[in-house]
Amino acid sequence: MSFFVARWVVGIFTFISMVHVYWAAGGKLGSAAAIPQLPAEFSRGPRPAFKLTALGALLVAAGLVLIAVLVCLRAGLYFDPISHKALQWGISGVAVIMFARAIGDSELVGFFKTVGGSRFARLDTFFYSPLCLVLGVGLLVVAWN
């Protein structure tokens, strides 16, 4: 079971990493729906909470690939499995980060966000936050089995 879960977790993290590499290379498809929107002020419409830079997208992509490699090492997907406690706790730490992302910052992201109405907010409620929960559970399964 852990091997099956690990394959899915690695696939999802790798796919999301490739999307970030696409954005770093200048691709625009889907990037507007992936950035939280600040509420409208006066007559101006909602605006992105931050500007995605190529370096930022590459750093996120590298972090996501690192997580996928750690899962591969733990589960023995493409390497010999490693059962070191540091790896187990490191993957558990990433799972906690995924759970924290799903819960949110109480304003822009997560299940308990207060700013809604944008495309990002809808996708966050119905896709991004549930995905973070599933990934967090998957990471814990890989780390502790």
What does this structure look like?
- The longest helix is centred in the last third of the chain and has 26 residues, at 119-144.
- This protein is globular.
- By secondary structure, it is mainly α.
- 25% of the residues are buried.
- 62% of the residues lie in helices and 3% in strands.
- It has helices at 2-24, 54-75, 85-103, 119-144; strands spanning 37-38, 47-48.
- It has one domain (2-39, 46-144).
- Strands 1-2 form a two-stranded antiparallel sheet.
- It contains 4 helices and 2 strands.
- It starts with a helix and ends with a helix.
Please estimate the helix content: 55-70%
Secondary structure class reads: mainly alpha
Separation, N- and C-terminal Cα atoms: 9 Å
What is the domain total for the residues?
A: 1
Summed up, the helix count is 4
> What is the strand tally?
2
Q: Let me know the average pLDDT.
A: 89
Shape: globular
Order of helices and strands: HEEHHH
Bin the strand percentage: under 5%
- Unreliable stretches (pLDDT < 50, length at least 5) are none
Compose a concise summary of this entry:
The chain is an all-alpha fold.
Question: Which key terms come to mind for this protein?
Answer:
mainly alpha, 145 residues, two-stranded antiparallel sheet, 2 strands
Helices and strands in order:
Layout: H1 2-24, E1 37-38, E2 47-48, H2 54-75, H3 85-103, H4 119-144
Antiparallel strand pairs: 1-2
